[in-house]
Amino acid sequence: MKRKLRTAVCLGLTAFVMISCISGVSAVTAGKILSSGIVAVDPSKVTDDFLLLSGATEYEQNIIDAANAIKAGAAEFKESVNISKYNINKADVKTLFNYLRFENPQLINVANNFSYNYYSNGVICDFYINYIFTAGEKNKYFTPFNKAVDEIVKQAEKQPTDFLKALYVHDYIIANNEYAKEVYDNPDSVSEFVYNAYGALVDRRSVCQGYSMAYKAIMDKLNIPVNFALSEEMNHLWNTVTIGGKTYHVDLTYDDPVPDIQGNVGHSNFLCTDKEITATAHSSWTTPSTISGTSYPDRFWDDIRSKICINGNEVIYAAYNSTNKSYLERRNLTTNKASTVKSSLNGVRWLTPSGTKYYTACLSRLELVGDVLYYSLPDGVNAIAVDGSDDQRVYTLPASANGQLFGFVQKNGKFYGDLSVEPGVNSKVFELALSEFKRSVVPGDVTGDGVVAMLDAIMTQKYALSFLTPDEKVIKAGDMNGDGVITVYDALLIQKKVLAM
After folding, report:
1. Which H or E element spans position 477?
2. pLDDT tens across 446-469, in order?
3. Cα gap 499→456, rounded to integer Å
4. Which helix (H) or strand (E) holds 329?
């Protein structure tokens, strides 16, 4: 269904001239004939006009400069901007507008239609901007949009590498956005926001244009180069991202299922070469830069359908093995060594409606909150400390529930479940009241007084140097990096934790 949907209606942006020169609307300005053009945007089509702009020629740079002038005007809700000094021919007005929109995803106020005046020689004079909302409504829309962007950027900045930043933003947008099926179910009632970053980040409903522009809006603030790939044949738009000097495909839309399942985050379209993105049914695209011909090192994420939770240089995710059983896996990104986290997910299967067969995939969804990892099971939710300790049940479906938990996610500080008999079919999304996660030990609290202090770091160092012999509880509290033993490095981690308080 998703493949069929994407081919038919995955949306991008193009402009088509509805009225190129309105008869009877002309005037003499500075001795030249001035005519009017009206351009409307059909957001259900994709064009690659703007990808031609690289500033390689003087004229391309003029288009870029003109777009920047319009950008400044749009930020102030100006009715028009005079761009005559840039000598842009009216034949390139679509390219100008596409560049403006795609290169500036923060312009959530710009509507899908505009008009312009041009001289008898075809040079555009005044560019008239139309808006989705008024200047008086600016705070109503820009305040929540900027807040959403800043919050995601703040969390992404905590990740130690550009790879992890790109991964965090990818997973966040997918987990918190839903493909706007109304574009084909009820096209007459579609909001213009589904085509821009506001839809993806605030309304949390968008099409491929919204996913892609939201990704760029955030990655731009992280100073990670992001651009677009477009396929007129597919009528589809996605991103490219440059990590470690190499550029890869990233398609958030294809990694988000339709129908939406809470917390289901695919990864088979993350950091792909041309060959790898072709394998996921992409074709005939155009990109402004060359895509790396070499796979991203140590790819492990292709089959992962949960969030990939980041904890320093480690990641934890829900996996599935060759014996058709689920489990939690921890991976050290420095060594690329993976290990199984002992948990209640190990060996679990989600049954089909018949109750006699099971789905051959791990359908658990994860959320990392602080240093506590929450993961879903068919009949409830468990929580476990990120170091692998204290696995415990924090929510159980009532006996009267019809179905299993196929989805689980945290949004705005609240947890939601996705209950259905089969994935994505007649799902019931509801808020979950999770019980408090209770630790047997507090990480770093080696003395057991309930407080992590410098004394704990000192005591840990003594245990590490064999001046004292730790018992099992001390090991659990002092083993900060989860390697099963207490070392001087653990003492250093406790010291850092104390100093950060």
Report:
1. helix 472-478
2. 887 778 999 989 989 988 888 888
3. 12
4. strand 326-332
CA–CA dist 265, 252 (Å, integer): 9
Environment class of residue 56 by beta-carbon count within 10 Å: exposed (0-12), middle (13-18) or buried (19+)? Answer: exposed
pLDDT per residue as tens digits for the range 225-261: 999 999 999 999 999 999 999 999 999 999 999 999 9
Q: 209 is written with which tokens?
A: 């244009």
Name the burial class of residue 143, with classes exposed (0-12), middle (13-18) and buried (19+) by CB atoms within 10 angstroms of its CB: exposed
Per-residue CA distances from 139 to 76, 134, 304, 451 (Å): 13, 10, 39, 43
Amino acid at 440: S
Q: Kindly report each contact of residues 338-346 with a partner whose C-beta sits within 8 Å and lies 24 or more positions away, as own/partner.
A: 338/300, 341/316, 341/384, 341/388, 342/388, 342/391, 343/375, 343/382, 343/384, 343/388, 343/391, 344/377, 344/382, 344/391, 344/393, 345/318, 345/375, 345/377, 345/382
Residue 77 contacts residue 138 (beta carbons within 8 Å): yes
Distance of CA 140 to the CA centre of its chain: 23
